[in-house]
């Protein structure tokens, strides 16, 4: 299954293969000071200039910083549905009963032409700041990539998700 730092499978990986993959990796593969760096509390209460300075520190240490926002739709029903779709479904598989809580380790499995790739990850933090916002940050546990990614969904004052 492991090949050059990648975890591969000829077919859609079973739960046992995913458990084996997770057992073969340790915790986060990036330095402790950067655990939770994508958490919104680290920049929400800062001025725009302070947030940019924080991003520059991450870039200086080799991280790529991207702030992408996508309009999903509008209304409370769309917001509630989006919260249930925290894990990708169209291009990848994640065990459906994976809990969204800090410390949870899981695999995202996706098909790359012939082999399936297993990407072991760990949830670094969960944010449920208020009724109109929810999210989590997941961190890499294997090479070749390292770092953290935040997924969040918000219902804004204009009723847009």
From TrEMBL:
<feature type="domain" description="DUF1990">
    <location>
        <begin position="60"/>
        <end position="161"/>
    </location>
</feature>
<dbReference type="InterPro" id="IPR018960">
    <property type="entry name" value="DUF1990"/>
</dbReference>
<protein>
    <recommendedName>
        <fullName>DUF1990 domain-containing protein</fullName>
    </recommendedName>
</protein>
<dbReference type="Pfam" id="PF09348">
    <property type="entry name" value="DUF1990"/>
</dbReference>
<feature type="region of interest" description="Disordered">
    <location>
        <begin position="134"/>
        <end position="161"/>
    </location>
</feature>
């Amino acid at each position: 299954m492991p090949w050059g730092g990648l975890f591969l499978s000829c077919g859609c990986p079973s739960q046992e293969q995913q458990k084996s993959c997770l057992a073969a990796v340790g915790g986060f593969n990036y330095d402790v000071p950067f655990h939770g760096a994508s958490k919104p509390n680290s920049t929400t209460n800062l001025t725009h200039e302070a947030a940019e300075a924080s991003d520059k520190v991450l870039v200086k240490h080799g991280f790529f910083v991207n702030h992408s926002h996508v309009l999903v739709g509008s209304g409370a029903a769309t917001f509630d549905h989006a919260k249930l779709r925290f894990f990708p479904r169209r291009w990848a598989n994640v065990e459906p009963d994976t809990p969204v809580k800090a410390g949870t380790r899981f695999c995202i499995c996706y098909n790359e032409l012939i082999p399936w790739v297993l990407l072991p990850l760990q949830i670094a933090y969960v944010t449920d700041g208020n009724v109109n916002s929810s999210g989590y940050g997941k961190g890499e546990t294997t090479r070749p990539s390292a770092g953290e990614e935040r997924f969040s969904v918000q219902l804004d004052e204009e009723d847009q998700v």
